[in-house]
Design brief:
Chain lengths: 454, 221
């Protein structure tokens, strides 16, 4: 259902309900007031007739001539009056009555409703000074009057209500026009449009929506830019070793045609080999990152012992670089596990260790500490005595393909991989310079407590 | 031809250096923008191969700086980024040519020769000096229509002299062109090559300007 129709329905139904309740209330009130007013008139008429008769010269009401000359009052239809003489509580004789009016003799004093000739009448009986005056009017005529009043007041009301619906339709349309403007502005955009959303003249109620859409577009734009930069970087990182391979192969081929260039050929082929290794390394890292990006949701519930993972990472690192590592385990509450698959945890620690070894001065030892914090988290700290990174570089270091200024080796993906593993398993990677000099990489994961070691 | 190669990746750089040398070019390699700036200030180069991703200063910035300094050295930009805007930016910054990694070594050499030829205001590949002719891209030398075989250094020396036939080139300048900046060579190395050139192409082919250096001489009839 369109917003316009919806608004119209809601407002329309509310209006009709509200005004119908008001109308019912008014009608009820009107009916009571009219009934009271007409009853008053009935009583007033009775008193008036009694008063008038009282002023007439005293007559022998018992005379037959009087009876013959019984007063006939011409009355309009629906209104009746009857005057009788009384003695004590008994009616002696009816002296006057309106023409065509029913016999009202039986009515009790005061107000009452009686049925005469199949129609209900409202009666008022006044007894004073030996006179009994009865006035009456027909209820159906009262009701008709009430209906007429209600109708003459109700028809304009209904017409106004019906008229307000098209007005509402028009007004809502006008009111919703800013939404249409925003929609038009959005529909003109292409997904890769880099320009910010043009300022739309939006009312305050729509401003939050517009701002939210603008922020969303901004984020989408950033994501696209990041993806584009990543593709660009990946192309660059893969093309560089590919260039080395291709160039050295061409050199080898060229040199092989020249006499006495055997050394050049060997060197070129060795270099091409080195290029292939680098290509493979970068490709492996890229694929690993891609897999990490994809698997976060489907991470299996695997727990890894923190200490053994740290030891294995150190063993692996020492295998390639020689034993330059201290492993410091603050062991009071070990064993402890972290919810990260072992291969990934070892890989993350290994990457941190590789960085530490690469940047530690010759002959200095880098170290790793594993420690439990507050019973809930396990911290792996890798420390080196290297030159560290500037504040700005610390923030950039986990970016894909980032290398420290001046560095020419490495894929630039090591810390990105650590960061991706941390993010995928509710962990955190922090990089900072140590106060005492050197650099510290801290990898934190939630802890899973395991029973006491046998 | 004396080429300055500015490339930060050692593996790629060593390949290009070896390849260009095999094609008879003299190459100096700078791994950073600062080293490139230093090299260009102490020696004269015929062409430059510039990689854009340098560790210290972006290659593009370096190029803009060179152009601002009035250096008209033909520059071939080498990059692994193939986005069109990179190419356009490079050319706008003053690059003369553009090659995407990975490239073909032969193509690189051919483009460098074309750059040098254009810079020298020639529209054909062949440099003629009297009855002596040199095909720049292949290094083929003919004297009165007869092919002459020259050693690599001799050819580099002849190229340097033919590139600027009226200009006097000092011994140091010639040594840079023939050996590049890095190599330690004997002080009389250029003399030796001049001697060989004279022996192969005639005594007057190189003229000695006493106290200043050498320039292209007459081709004997």
């Amino acid at each position: 259902m369109s917003l316009r129709l919806r608004l119209l329905a809601i407002i329309g139904v509310c209006l009709v309900m509200l005004w119908s309740a008001v109308a019912a209330w008014m009608l009820l009130d009107l009916r009571n007031e009219m009934r009271a007013a007409m009853d008053d008139r009935l009583a007033a008429s009775a008193r008036m007739v009694a008063g008038l008769i009282g002023q007439l010269p005293a007559a022998d009401s018992s005379g037959p001539e009087r009876r013959a000359a019984a007063l006939d009052v011409v009355a309009r239809d629906g209104l009746a009056c009857e005057v009788s003489l009384m003695r004590g509580e008994a009616t002696l004789q009816t002296v006057a009555r309106t023409a065509g009016s029913p016999k009202l003799a039986g009515a009790a004093p005061g107000y009452g409703i009686r049925e005469f000739g199949g129609k209900p009448w409202r009666t008022y009986v006044l007894q004073q000074d030996g006179l009994r005056v009865v006035t009456a009017d027909r209820m159906d005529i009262r009701d008709k009057l009430l209906r007429d009043v209600a109708l003459s007041a109700g028809i304009p009301f209904v017409v106004a209500l019906m008229g307000s619906l098209p007005l509402l339709w028009f007004g809502i349309g006008r009111g919703l026009r800013p939404i249409e403007r925003v929609r038009a502005a959005l529909s003109k955009r292409r997904p890769d449009d880099e320009a910010p959303l043009p300022d739309v003249d939006a009312p305050p109620e729509l401003k939050p929506l517009v701002v939210t859409v603008q922020h969303l577009l901004e984020r989408v734009r950033e994501t696209i830019a990041r993806e584009r930069r990543f593709t660009d970087d990946a192309a660059h990182e893969l093309r560089t070793p590919l260039t080395a391979i291709k160039t050295h192969l061409q050199v080898a081929r060229l040199a092989s045609t020249k006499p006495g260039a055997g050394l050049v050929v060997d060197e070129a082929l060795a270099n091409a080999d080195a290029g292939v290794l680098r290509f493979q390394h970068t490709l492996d890292q890229l694929l690993l990152l891609a897999r990490l990006d994809g698997r976060v949701d489907a991470a299996p519930n695997e727990a890894t012992d923190a200490e053994s993972a740290a030891r294995q990472a150190i063993d692996d690192a020492c295998d390639t670089r020689g034993p330059t590592f201290d492993l410091v385990l603050e062991a009071n509450d070990f064993p402890i596990s972290v919810p990260v698959p072992k291969t990934l945890l070892v890989l993350a620690l290994r990457n941190l260790l590789d960085n530490a070894m690469q940047h530690s001065p010759e002959g200095r030892r880098a170290s790793m500490q594993v420690r439990r914090v507050g019973g809930e988290r396990v911290i792996f700290r890798v420390l080196d005595d290297g030159p560290g990174l500037s504040e700005a570089d610390c923030a950039l270091a986990t970016r894909r393909f980032w290398r420290r200024p001046g560095a020419t080796s490495g894929s630039g993906l090591g810390l990105s991989i650590v960061s991706a593993i941390a993010q995928g398993f509710d962990g955190e990677l922090r990089l900072r310079n140590r106060d005492a000099g050197g650099f510290e990489a801290t990898l934190t994961f939630p802890a899973i407590a395991v029973g006491v070691r046998p | 031809m004396h080429v300055l190669l500015v490339e930060d990746d050692m593996l790629v750089a060593s390949g290009i250096c070896a390849g260009l040398r095999l094609h008879g070019l003299t190459v100096d390699h700078a791994s950073t923008a600062a080293k490139a700036q230093a090299a260009i200030e102490v020696s004269s180069f015929d062409t430059c191969v510039l990689d854009l991703g340098l560790p210290d200063t972006d290659g593009m910035t370096l190029l803009v700086r060179w152009r601002a300094q009035g250096r008209s050295l033909p520059v071939l930009v080498l990059t692994a980024r193939d986005a069109v805007e990179h190419r356009v930016l490079g050319l706008k910054a003053g690059a003369d040519d553009y090659l995407l990694k990975p490239f073909d070594l032969d193509e690189l050499v051919a483009r460098l020769h074309a750059l040098q030829r254009r810079a020298a205001g020639r529209s054909v590949d062949c440099i003629e000096h009297g009855e002596l002719s040199l095909v720049a891209s292949t290094g083929e030398v003919r004297l009165r229509g007869e092919p002459v075989t020259l050693a690599r250094r001799e050819l580099a020396l002849l190229r340097a002299l033919l590139q600027h036939p009226r200009q006097i080139l000092s011994g140091d300048q010639l040594r840079d062109r023939v050996y590049g900046l890095d190599q330690d060579v004997e002080s009389n190395a250029v003399n030796v090559h001049v001697y060989h050139l004279r022996r192969k192409l005639g005594a007057d082919i190189v003229e000695t300007v006493r106290g200043l250096g050498y320039r292209m001489g007459e081709v004997p009839r």
